[in-house]
Design goal:
Length: about 180
């Protein structure tokens, strides 16, 4: 893992409560923060991973990513440091690839996915990355909306990219300002 300082301990509860006024989301959310994922988080991340995706990553995949210098993983945790969500990005050749993002199903729609996405984009900017790519299921309108409202645009399609069920992937890209 990179030793570079990033948005590893970004508290956002106050911002979320202020945002609640505009969004109409429920107020009184418990305090949460984004921090870098650690090996001790892998079991909790796997619970979210298995519940979120029909073809989940293995714990070994996540552990291996944690060891890679060119990868960066974040968790959203509550005030007791319980994992509520996570995101993984890796970097190669000046580009970033958002490998995964998921939030505990009982904690969604509270801004955590947006904050995790902001954390990976902050990390990409800190590494002077030009473009961040991702693949998303064609039918995953909720995630596509989140990405589009955060500056991602569709740039391609990978036919039958996913299984269980078989589905095309939409490739999206976010250009980052230099
Ligand atoms: C996609 C995901 C990470 C979003 O996490 P989240 O914590 O719910 O995200 P947020 O609360 O920040 O909401 C993001 C946006 O989706 C909207 N949204 C969230 N839940 C919604 C719902 N049930 N219905 C409609 N819109 C919804 C929010 O209003 C918000 O809109 P905005 O962009 O205008 O702010 C989460 O739904 C998830 O884990 N899904 C399963 C895994 C997955 O599909 N990952 C993406 C793979 S490419």
């Amino acid at each position: 893992m990179s030793a570079r300082l990033g948005p590893s301990d970004r508290r956002f509860a106050v911002a979320r409560r202020e945002a609640d006024v505009d969004t109409g989301r429920a107020t009184g959310e418990p305090e949460s923060r984004i921090r870098r994922m650690a090996e001790r988080d892998v079991d909790a991340v796997m619970v979210i991973e298995r519940a979120s995706f029909p073809s989940p990553w293995s714990a070994e995949t996540i552990s291996n990513l944690l060891k890679r210098e060119n990868a960066c993983l974040f968790t959203a945790v509550d005030e007791d440091d319980q994992v509520l969500g996570y995101a993984a990005i890796w970097f190669a050749g000046g580009d970033g690839e958002l490998g995964s993002i998921a939030v505990d199903a009982t904690k969604r729609s509270a801004g955590l996915g947006s904050e995790l996405l902001a954390a990976v984009l902050d990390e990409a900017r800190a590494r002077a990355i030009r473009s961040v790519f991702l693949e998303v299921r064609e039918g995953n309108w909720l995630a596509q909306g989140l990405y589009q409202r955060r500056g991602f645009e569709p740039v391609g399609r990978r036919r039958k990219y996913y299984k269980d069920p078989v589905e095309d992937a939409i490739v999206m890209r976010r250009l980052l300002a230099r």
